[in-house]
# Entry
Amino acid sequence: MTYELVQIAHEHGAELGRVTRSECATLDEGSWVRIVPTGPSPDGLESFQLHDQLTGMAYHAERNTDRDEYDGTFTYAVQCRE
# Structure
């Protein structure tokens, strides 16, 4: 599994988001994902589970929480399936 960049526009607080850009072959642009925080990772990033609302697939993701994204869009490093 590799990490790919996925950009998500958060809706309804931080629990639901729409994929606006994806380098991950199995997570399509336009998909809706449920965003579940899982805590800090050892490298200082925040860890999440992303649950694709259409396919039911779950992905491990990390994001740098030190950077504020003012438009509600965040970039995640997502562990993608090949």
